[in-house]
Specification:
By secondary structure, this protein is of the alpha/beta class. The chain is globular and about 50 Å long. It contains eight helices and seven strands, in the order E-H-E-H-E-H-E-H-E-H-E-H-H-H-E. Strands 3-2-1-4-5-6-7 form a seven-stranded parallel β-sheet, with helices on both faces. The protein has a single domain, classed as Rossmann fold (3-Layer(aba) Sandwich). Helix 1 (24-35) packs across helix 8 (229-239), helix 3 (74-88) packs parallel to helix 4 and helix 4 packs parallel to helix 5 (160-179). Strand 5, helix 5 and strand 6 form a beta-alpha-beta unit. Bound molecules: nicotinamide-adenine-dinucleotide (NAD).
Length: 270
Amino acid sequence: MKGDDVMPGKLEGKVAWVSGANKGIGEGISRLFAREGAKIAMIGRTVSEGNRIAEEIVEQGGEAFFFRCDVRSEDDIKASIKETVKRYGTIDILINNAGIVDIKPLHEYTIEEWNYVMDINVRSMFLSFKYAFPYLKEHEHSYVVNLGSISSFVGQDTTPVYTTSKGAVLSLSKSIGLDYARYGIRCNCVCPGITETPMLMKHLNSADNPEEHYKKRLTRVPINKQLYPEDIAKTCLYFSCEDSSGVTATSLIIDGGYLGCAEWDAGKYE
Ligand SMILES: NC(=O)c1ccc[n+]([C@@H]2O[C@H](COP(=O)([O-])OP(=O)(O)OC[C@H]3O[C@@H](n4cnc5c(N)ncnc54)[C@H](O)[C@@H]3O)[C@@H](O)[C@H]2O)c1
């Protein structure tokens, strides 16, 4: 993806498997990692969006392909890992980004609905790691990044299964970081705050006045701006190369200061 006069990217020669790559944060990660020289296996459910983004990456000189995979399915995940290795020979970086949010009180959930969220947000991380491990352990350095949330640390209105799942993602990331350190695998959890993606829009649209609700939420962000997928992708990049050598089994919150204090009104400085 680079001209002769450009410095090599941070991920030159690496292979990255990215779930939920066809929009939002996963799209941002795929585009940034491709610019940094990685070959990207873009994993997701929506073929048209996924193929379009992969084609754009290739047109811009990067390497990427889209593979249709429902991360709830063990067979799909296995097949996506197999296809990645068939095309690119190995996997150096595993980015577990796919996730969903569901908004309703706990007592209204059926077991199927509970499992649906937990299977996408948590069980998929177990499965992708299980099948990628034989390749990750081939390298001196390899990387797992799991997408948590500020909800990995604090509660959130009417999203009981989502917050449960994100708490679990943080714990799972620590376990992988500890248990696989001896294989040269580092695993960390990236925890975004309010980030402008289709998921955020779904969440906001559940409010009576989404625009007002969004504005009000942003007044609680000390840097006084919304975050974009690129902001989160940059942190994923940090955890996916030796810039973060020595960092494992931990997390990083990217929330513009949202969790830094109990109360904040950014508007008062306008
Ligand atoms: N946007 C935010 O404000 C925010 C905040 C905190 C954490 N996060 C986390 O970041 C990650 C990405 O979120 P986003 O905001 O980009 O969401 P998004 O809804 O915009 O994108 C989610 C991606 O996951 C994919 N996905 C969902 N279910 C899937 C399945 N069964 N199989 C395969 N792919 C599936 C979707 O197709 C999509 O590509 C999620 O794990 C989310 O919980 C987002």
